[in-house]
């Protein structure tokens, strides 16, 4: 990735459905200037499907079309992509990958509220139990790129947001030094300016 041409990094927020990816990603976008991209929304808007999964009662994503659709946004930098998988994204797309994790009892209630059928609910809980998305991410990205973040309570989401904002600031300082000139880029965005380095 030609990170020297990017002013802001690309981030992937992943995790099983129900862990709070859109909520966290929208907060990041509103406080950082990072553009929020929800893969499910992009697929719906562009009808980027190639079938329907009867068992899970959901459309089947056309991954190639999604990658084509996201390429221009990703190339500009400064995007936070929200999706429950990561297996079809090229490794070089993301500077950092954050896997949100939720306790199964909390996750079960969230998914039950969404009306998940028994099969889909069971598969999602199993995926979370065995850390499937975290393990896949660890195998797909270089060491140090993938991080787990707890996503059980609102306070944790605030901590997660602030951690990602601090990481983003450090990335900007390291890769876009002309943008940072002695002031904290995200000082007004992070709860306490003392968190800025």
Characterize the structure shown.
The protein contains seven helices and seven strands, in the order βαβαββαββαααβα. The chain has 197 residues and is of the alpha/beta class. It has one domain: P-loop containing nucleotide triphosphate hydrolases (Rossmann fold, 3-Layer(aba) Sandwich), CATH 3.40.50. Strands 2-5-1-6-7 form a five-stranded parallel β-sheet, sandwiched between helices. A hairpin with a 4-residue loop joins strand 3 (49-53) and strand 4 (58-61). Helix 4 runs antiparallel to helix 5. The longest helix has 22 residues, at 154-175. The radius of gyration is 17 Å and the shape is globular. It starts with 10 loop residues before the first strand and ends in a 22-residue tail after the last helix. The model is unreliable at 181-197 (pLDDT under 50). Pfam families: AAA_18. Residues 38-61 are annotated as: NMPbind. ATP binds at residues 18, 20-21, 23, 114. Its EC number is 2.7.4.3. It comes from Heterocephalus glaber.
Query: What is the assigned CATH homologous superfamily?
Result: P-loop containing nucleotide triphosphate hydrolases
Largest sheet: 5 strands, parallel
Q: How far from one another are the termini?
A: 26 Å
User: Strands across the major sheet, in which order?
Assistant: 2-5-1-6-7
Total discrete domains: 1
CATH architecture: 3-Layer(aba) Sandwich
Please identify the top-level CATH class. Alpha Beta
Overall geometry comes to globular
Enzyme class: transferase
Region (LID): 113-123
InterPro entries: Adenyl_kinase_AK6 (IPR020618), P-loop_NTPase (IPR027417)
Binding site for ATP: 18, 20-21, 23, 114
């Amino acid at each position: 990735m030609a990170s020297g041409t990017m002013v802001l990094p690309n981030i992937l927020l992943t995790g099983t459905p129900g862990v709070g990816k859109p909520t966290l990603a929208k907060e990041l976008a509103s406080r950082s200037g990072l553009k929020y991209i929800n893969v499910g929304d992009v697929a719906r808007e562009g009808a980027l499907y190639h079938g329907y999964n009867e068992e899970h009662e959901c459309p089947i994503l056309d991954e190639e079309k999604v990658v084509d659709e996201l390429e221009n946004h990703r190339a500009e930098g400064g995007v936070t992509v929200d999706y429950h998988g990561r297996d079809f994204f090229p490794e070089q797309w993301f500077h950092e990958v954050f896997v949100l994790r939720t306790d199964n009892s909390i996750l079960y209630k969230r998914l039950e509220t969404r009306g998940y059928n028994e099969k889909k609910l069971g598969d999602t809980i199993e995926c979370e139990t065995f850390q499937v998305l975290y393990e896949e991410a660890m195998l797909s990205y270089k060491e140090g790129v993938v991080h787990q973040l707890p996503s059980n309570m609102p306070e944790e989401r605030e901590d997660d947001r602030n951690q990602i904002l601090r990481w983003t600031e450090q990335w900007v300082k390291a890769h876009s030094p002309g943008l940072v000139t002695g002031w904290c880029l995200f000082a007004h965005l992070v709860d306490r300016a003392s968190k800025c380095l």
